[in-house]
């Protein structure tokens, strides 16, 4: 029997992990990259959002100046014709866009971070990385990032969201 004036809390609310992964999906929609849209959210120990980021050009750089191409070799001329030397990854943008220090925080992201992002995450003092996908696991830069995280004690956790963001 229910007591008068008291109600039960709503069932089926989003977990914090699902909430932040949905935010990762939403902020990724800001990316103008034609092939890869990624997002990142940094939160503190109280689940307060500190920073958001998506993959894109550095501030003030017109997206029409450099190529968005993915394919190219490692020869200097070919590499410079791809997006890779120019794009800032979502994880780094989330750290740089933070409204205060992210030290001790948790970072949510789509893809397991590359070695450059791993270095920035470690230097910023982030203690946990929660990612959706590790599809490049066997690529050298991701092997290196895993080694960096292990050596620095950053906790890694894969999270598959139970709900998807519906964007039309």
Helix/strand layout:
Blueprint: H1 16-28, E1 39-43, E2 49-54, H2 76-79, H3 90-96, E3 106-111, H4 115-124, E4 128-133, H5 140-152, E5 155-158
Parallel strand pairs: 3-4, 4-5
Antiparallel strand pairs: 1-2, 1-3
Helix pairs in contact: 4-5
What's the short version?
This protein has 168 residues and is an alpha/beta fold.
Describe this structure in words.
The chain has helices spanning 16-28, 76-79, 90-96, 115-124, 140-152, and strands at 39-43, 49-54, 106-111, 128-133, 155-158. With 168 residues, the chain is an alpha/beta fold. It has a 5-stranded mixed sheet. Helix 4 (115-124) packs parallel to helix 5 (140-152). It is globular, with a radius of gyration of 18 Å. The relative contact order is 0.17.
| N→C terminal distance | 44 Å
Strands in their spatial order, largest beta sheet = 2-1-3-4-5
Oligomer: single chain
Spatial extent as radius of gyration: 18 Å
Order of helices and strands: HEEHHEHEHE
Low-confidence stretches: none
Q: Report the major sheet.
A: 5 strands, mixed
Overall geometry comes to globular
Number of strands: 5
Number of helical stretches of at least 4 residues? 5
Q: What does the average pLDDT come to?
A: 92
